[in-house]
Q: What sequence folds into this?
């Protein structure tokens, strides 16, 4: 047996003498409350994350839809302005009805 | 004797065998769980659950001790993978979290066992596992390789490197030489 091995055997014997006491066998078989508490903690965490995620997705969809409506309105206004400026001097569309975008069709 | 047994999950023999290896199983679970007692208790409970429900069966291919150590080792790995919230949980509940304190600082107030533990933590996890199995549990390198599911060659390399590195750390830390060598 080498010096290293003798030292290691002695070192691990010291570790063994100071080993932590094992928990009761029957209690270990039945399981600890900690596992249940941890599972509950994880389940609550996952539910909260799912709730927050769905709220964020809904908000993003609504925001996107509002933005596209605003873009469409501004495009319509620009087209109307072009039409008025080009056609009115020629005598067309002098009675273009006023369109309110806020009220809708 | 144990090697010839092929025990089904519902036999009282299994319960008795588990009880007789309980102390050693807990020490091994502790080593696999990086010295965290709550994790070791969880790992051991999950291991017993696997065995008693028949999810893990002893077929008698190796000794019962080698077999159950293998089940504990695999369960500890699964448990570590699943514990995404493990570190947060430990912080919240104020449980022990391993820290890499320099060995010199540890020595200033350490008992023999603390010095050994500090030196053990300086080698790689795989080397820690193999050194524990050989020196603490008195398994052969072949049995340790069987528990850790590696080839004997790989186990021997981990064993030699771990042993050399840890012995060197112990010597540097002023851990006393074995009496036989001193004489």
A:
């Amino acid at each position: 047996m080498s010096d290293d091995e003798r030292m290691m055997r002695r070192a691990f014997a010291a570790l063994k003498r100071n080993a932590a006491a094992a928990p009761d066998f029957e209690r270990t078989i039945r399981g600890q409350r900690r596992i249940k508490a941890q599972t509950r903690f994880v389940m609550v965490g996952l539910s909260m994350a799912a709730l927050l995620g769905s709220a964020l997705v809904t908000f993003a969809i609504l925001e996107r839809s509002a933005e596209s409506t605003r873009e469409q309105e501004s495009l319509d206004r620009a087209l109307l302005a072009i039409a008025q400026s080009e056609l009115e001097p020629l005598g067309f569309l002098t009675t273009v009805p006023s369109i309110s975008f806020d009220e809708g069709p | 004797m144990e090697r010839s047994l092929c025990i089904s999950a519902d036999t009282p023999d299994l319960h008795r065998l588990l009880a007789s290896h309980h102390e050693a199983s807990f020490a091994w679970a502790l080593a696999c769980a990086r010295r965290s007692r709550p994790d070791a208790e969880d790992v051991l409970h999950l291991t017993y659950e696997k065995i008693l429900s028949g999810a893990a069966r002893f077929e008698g291919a190796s000794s019962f001790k080698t077999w159950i150590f293998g089940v504990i080792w695999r369960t500890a790995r699964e448990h570590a993978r699943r514990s995404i919230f493990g570190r947060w949980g430990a912080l919240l509940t104020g449980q022990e979290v391993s820290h890499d304190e320099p060995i010199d600082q540890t020595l200033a107030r350490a008992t023999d066992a603390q010095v050994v533990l500090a030196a053990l933590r300086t080698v790689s996890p795989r080397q820690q596992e193999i050194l524990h199995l050989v020196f603490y549990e008195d398994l052969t390198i072949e049995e340790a390789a069987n528990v850790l599911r590696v080839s004997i060659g790989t186990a021997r390399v981990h064993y030699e490197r771990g042993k050399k590195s840890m012995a060197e750390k112990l010597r540097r830390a002023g851990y006393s030489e074995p009496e036989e060598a001193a004489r």
Notes: The radius of gyration of chain A is 38 Å. The mean pLDDT of chain A is 82. The first helix of chain A runs from residue 3 to 17.
